[in-house]
Design brief:
This protein is of the alpha+beta class. The chain is 20% helix and 30% strand. The chain is built from one helix and two strands, in the order ββα. The chain is globular, with a radius of gyration of 12 Å.
Length: 46
Protein backbone atom coordinates (compact mmCIF):
# COMPACT_ATOMS: atom_id res chain seq x y z
CA UNK A 1 0.00 0.00 0.00
CA UNK A 2 1.28 3.45 -0.86
CA UNK A 3 0.71 6.50 1.34
CA UNK A 4 0.27 7.21 5.00
CA UNK A 5 -2.14 5.49 7.33
CA UNK A 6 -3.05 6.33 10.91
CA UNK A 7 -5.09 4.90 13.72
CA UNK A 8 -5.94 5.67 17.31
CA UNK A 9 -7.78 3.73 20.00
CA UNK A 10 -8.79 5.39 23.26
CA UNK A 11 -10.02 3.22 26.10
CA UNK A 12 -11.98 4.36 29.13
CA UNK A 13 -13.13 2.23 32.05
CA UNK A 14 -16.58 1.79 30.49
CA UNK A 15 -16.10 2.51 26.76
CA UNK A 16 -13.60 2.71 23.91
CA UNK A 17 -13.29 4.71 20.69
CA UNK A 18 -11.37 3.71 17.55
CA UNK A 19 -10.67 5.76 14.46
CA UNK A 20 -8.31 5.59 11.50
CA UNK A 21 -7.77 6.44 7.88
CA UNK A 22 -5.43 6.49 4.90
CA UNK A 23 -3.72 9.36 3.11
CA UNK A 24 -5.62 12.07 4.98
CA UNK A 25 -5.86 13.19 8.59
CA UNK A 26 -8.73 15.02 10.32
CA UNK A 27 -8.16 18.78 10.41
CA UNK A 28 -7.47 18.84 14.14
CA UNK A 29 -5.32 15.66 14.19
CA UNK A 30 -2.00 17.53 14.46
CA UNK A 31 -2.97 18.59 17.99
CA UNK A 32 -3.32 14.94 19.08
CA UNK A 33 0.33 13.78 18.81
CA UNK A 34 1.47 17.09 20.32
CA UNK A 35 -0.85 16.61 23.33
CA UNK A 36 0.23 12.97 23.79
CA UNK A 37 3.88 14.02 23.55
CA UNK A 38 3.31 16.57 26.30
CA UNK A 39 1.63 13.93 28.48
CA UNK A 40 4.59 11.60 27.89
CA UNK A 41 7.01 14.42 28.70
CA UNK A 42 8.75 14.20 25.32
CA UNK A 43 9.18 10.40 25.20
CA UNK A 44 8.58 8.88 21.77
CA UNK A 45 5.41 6.98 20.98
CA UNK A 46 4.19 5.10 17.92
Amino acid sequence: MDGTSWGVEIEYADASVESGGSNEYPTEFRAYPKAVGELLEGREFH
